[in-house]
Every structure is written in structure tokens, then in C-alpha cells.
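Per reviewer request, we include the raw input and output of the structure prediction for the construct analysed in the revised manuscript.
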Amino acid sequence: MLVDLHTHTNASDGELAPQVLLALQAAAGVELLAITDHDTLAGWDQAQPVGEGAPRLLPGIEFSVEATRQEVHVLGLGFDPDHPGLRQSVQDQQERRRQRAERIADRLEYLGVPGALAGAEEEAGGAGIGRPHFARFLVASGRVRNFDEAFRRYLGRGKPAACRMEWPPLGDAIEWIHAAGGRAVLAHPHSYKLTRSALRGLVGEFRAAGGDALEVAMPGLAPGQIGELARLTREAGLRASAGSDFHSPDGWNLPSRIPPLPPGLEALWDEWV
């Protein structure tokens, strides 16, 4: 069974509208799909079934939190999307994002780049503004040649327009997800550039806070990386999840490239199929 429990639409930093994403996933043979936009349920709210053969749609979100002194992401899956507490938490996260966007725009203004907030808003098209929208504005305005240069010169960690965000602690997001009846997944653990011992510490912190699963099977991971994540999952007594982290049909992280789970792991999605 092909599942994709980590995808993004243009409600956050993905390129496709929810209905287009659903059609693409259906064509790829995905049977269970979660839209996990960053700190918003707007993609879920817009999504509608696309007919026979469409994947079953599972409520999802990707919360930004603080752990190991950096930004870490926690997926919420299978929760009640109308839960009042969860909706309030989403609203609070969006307010944090808006405040950061205003600070980034102020820094770009100081650096001689006027109109950045309005430009990012136009690129976002009504979605919550993130750094990718500023990057697209910088490309469109001719300030940089491409998306990567925007992060290298302005928006990446330690660059002059980068703003540290005070995200809530890891345990808060897990509590929000559980209160709404969902499951919490530590997203793309390999991406935080931690040593093995530090990653083991993060997984331990996640487990101690009540986390449910690790994202183990993702496109682009080497067999050794998947094996290491599988070992951490077993050691912590967690379940395993799988997802593409899809953003664009032109990207490399497509649902067809999601590898199978290593043997001996309990699939998180078994409770929904």
C-alpha cells in the first residue's frame, strides 16, 4: 500500500492547489494521503475528493517547534480538524509567522530591498508568509538569480535578513495534536544536521514528550540513513511513518520515490486503514 503522509500545497510553501495535489497523488497510486501544510489547515479546508480512485484524505499539519536549540517540525496526523484548541493553536502559529515576516521585511528594507512584505504577500497568494515567498519575490524583482541564491545571500541561517523565530517547545505541539485525537510524528529527522548522539537525544526528548512515530521512509535517503532511523525508531519504541515532503511536481521528492519501511517496524498508518 502506497501512503504519503507528508505533503504541502499552496496554502503554505507548496506549488499546487489542494485539488491538483490530490489528482497527482491519485495518479501515482497513493491510497492514503495527508496534506501537512506548515502551521495551517487551509489546504485541508479546501480539499475535496476527486472521484473514484482518489486517495483517502487524512487530516494533517506540520507544526514548527523549538528543540535542540533549533527549529524542528512535528507532523500531526489523524486528528479532529475542527477541534477548537487545535484551531486556536494554528491561529497562534500564524500570528508568529506574520510577526517574523514583518521583521524579515524590515531587514530587507534596511538592506536596500523595498516592498518586500507586499511582494511576499503577492507570492503567497493568501497563504501564510514564509521565507520561500520572500525568496520568490527576490527572484521576481531581479535581486537574485534563483531561489538558492536568495537563501545564500539574504534568508538562510546567519544571513542578514534571517530572523530567529521563538517557536513553542516540542511538547506543546504534541499536546495540541493529542488533545485533538491525533498522532504526533517527528518529521524528517535526518534533516536537522545533528550528530548521531544529538539525534538520539532529540528522539528521546520527542518520545518523553509523548511523541508517537518517526518519519523513516522518505525519498532521497541513502539505505544507511534509513537503517539508522529504523534503529532509532526501534530503540525508542515508536512507530514509523512515511512521506514524500512533496512541494512541487518538478522536485525530486515525489510519492513514487517513497521507499518501503524496513522490516520489523510498526507502520503508523495501520490504525487508519
